[in-house]
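Need a sequence for this fold. Nothing fancy.
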């Protein structure tokens, strides 16, 4: 998408600009995550050539040579194309960058909500899922009986606020030879123009296509508006320009259809969009956000973190007439959704943490971001997915990113270069292949004699993922924490949140630190009385009363393919 780079760069580190909006919507002050940072942009994608691996690797090399502190990559392969690390330019380039002390943040992908769709899941990458914010883009439907149905969408329609326009169900406006489901969906060549012209048409998103596709057919036939019933609540407002269109839930869709079917001459109108704030519940994990578990392999829990990625207002090119509603100048700011938008939120926070703690490694910065994340929404209830069920680490990793918590995490998990090399060994690569992946290998390094995919769980990562879990054998993993809270005696006590069918023990249950940089280790034992029927989740948290360091875990009995 042309303009994508401008949008994500301004989100990461744009200067403060007051009084911005998208044609009056979402009005306020815009500011990037780290407005004091300097931005270098490296073009790796083009309309004709796409995003070539050679361009991506060249950009990594240039960024390393330029001495950047954080790399923000709002791109990735589609989830069906699962490249091995040796064939993945992002994973390879990121490995080299991390070896040079650069934090690499990547989008998790937009192929959700199906499980196992997360991309950019190498353990040296910070992988970011997308969530909603507490701002909505509301375009309501008013029926002839004055019932108001809440809808979502961005339109600048100039039609009457009173319900005076005839409204018809797509199925009832079917061409004689058209398929019924095609007409319900308002597909091309499925509607009778005489029955659509001058009316608001109710369409159903049966084939889960983009909302605008339904608009195009109705608009072409002379319809004056569309109410789209979406059976998967996506929580994402599409932009319809000046055409009156909105999207409603299946529950509200039933109310609209009931009104149409029970009224001799049904009428309605669609109201112009408003952008109310303090919307609840928020955040919600976005419908499109790619989900875990990671498949290369499952023993790293991905995504790592979630951040705002739905209808994000950020800078735009200023000459894009395609994005301008009819009669309007091209926008200077645009509203876009995707994990591409979530990624630079975390990149900006990473840059801020680096500026306050210049000696911290990329893994320390990632740990600070993950272990201080939030799991509670603005209703003081657990964060949910778009379906209203509690989110798991496969949806949002450690949780929703905190903009300030990572500045003072108390303790961090340092994932070392040896951890990453051991990961490659456990993943099945020999030392010859590892040398082609890594820029440099410490003298004398060899793969451990015991290397298996199960041992990946033991690298010092801020979360824990276990596959191939056998309840009879159980599993033990180790972790080491480093004190970054300064000198002075401090004792942290563990709290375990685990499901009833999984027994989790931590030894020792207290960790003591006396100096900045002190390290202390613990062992986690997982066992169960009966086989696990599904993946289970929980967390391990260390607290000294001032700082709380929380690590999620996921345990699965499924074998890694």
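Here you go.
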């Amino acid at each position: 998408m042309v303009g994508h780079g401008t949008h994500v760069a301004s989100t990461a580190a744009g200067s403060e600009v007051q009084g911005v909006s998208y044609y009056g919507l979402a009005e306020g002050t815009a500011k990037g995550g780290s407005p004091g940072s300097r931005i270098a942009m490296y073009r790796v994608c083009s309309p004709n050539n796409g995003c070539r691996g050679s361009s991506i690797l060249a950009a990594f090399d240039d960024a390393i040579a330029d001495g950047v502190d954080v790399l923000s990559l709002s791109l990735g392969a589609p989830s069906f194309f699962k490249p091995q690390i040796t064939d993945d330019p992002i994973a390879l380039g990121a490995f080299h960058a991390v070896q040079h002390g650069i934090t690499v943040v990547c989008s998790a992908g937009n192929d959700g909500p199906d499980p196992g769709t997360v991309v950019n899941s190498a353990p040296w990458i910070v992988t970011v899922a997308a969530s909603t914010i507490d701002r909505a883009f509301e375009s309501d439907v008013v029926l002839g009986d004055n019932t108001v149905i809440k809808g979502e969408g961005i339109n600048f329609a100039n039609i009457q606020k009173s319900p005076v326009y005839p409204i018809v169900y797509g199925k009832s406006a079917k061409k004689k030879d058209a398929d019924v489901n095609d007409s319900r969906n308002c597909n091309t060549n499925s509607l009778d123009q005489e029955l659509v012209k001058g009316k608001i048409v109710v369409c159903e998103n049966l084939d889960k296509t983009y909302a605008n596709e339904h608009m195009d057919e109705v608009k072409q036939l002379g319809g004056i508006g569309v109410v789209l019933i979406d059976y998967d609540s996506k929580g994402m407002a599409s932009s319809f320009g000046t055409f009156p269109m909105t999207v409603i839930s299946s529950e509200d869709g039933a109310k609209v259809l009931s009104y149409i079917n029970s009224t001799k001459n049904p009428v309605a109108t669609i109201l112009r969009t408003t952008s109310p704030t303090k919307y609840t519940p928020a955040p919600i994990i976005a419908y499109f956000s790619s989900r875990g578990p990671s498949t290369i392999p499952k023993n790293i829990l991905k995504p790592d973190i979630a951040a705002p990625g739905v209808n994000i207002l950020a800078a735009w090119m200023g000459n894009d007439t395609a994005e301008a509603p009819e009669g309007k100048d091209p926008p200077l700011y645009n509203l876009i959704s995707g994990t591409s938008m979530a990624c630079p939120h975390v990149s900006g926070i990473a840059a801020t943490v680096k500026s306050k703690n210049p000696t911290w490694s990329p893994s320390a910065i990632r740990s600070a971001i993950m272990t201080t994340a939030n799991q509670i929404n603005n209703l003081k209830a657990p964060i949910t997915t778009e379906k209203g069920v509690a989110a798991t680490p496969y949806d949002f990793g450690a949780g929703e990113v905190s903009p300030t918590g990572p500045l003072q995490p108390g303790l961090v998990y340092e994932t070392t270069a040896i951890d990453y090399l051991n990961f490659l060994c456990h993943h099945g690569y020999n030392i010859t292949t590892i040398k082609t992946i890594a820029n440099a290998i410490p003298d004398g390094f060899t793969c451990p004699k015991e290397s298996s995919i199960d041992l990946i769980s033991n690298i010092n990562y801020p979360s824990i993922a276990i596959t191939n879990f056998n309840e009879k054998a159980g599993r033990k993993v180790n972790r080491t924490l480093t004190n970054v809270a300064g000198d002075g005696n401090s004792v942290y006590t563990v709290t375990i949140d685990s499901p009833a069918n999984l027994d989790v023990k931590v030894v020792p249950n207290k960790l003591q630190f006396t100096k900045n940089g002190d390290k202390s280790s613990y062992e986690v034992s997982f066992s169960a009385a009966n086989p696990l029927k599904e993946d289970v989740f929980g967390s391990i948290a260390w607290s000294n009363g001032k700082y709380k360091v929380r690590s999620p875990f996921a345990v699965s009995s499924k074998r890694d393919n």
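For context: The longest strand covers residues 475-483.
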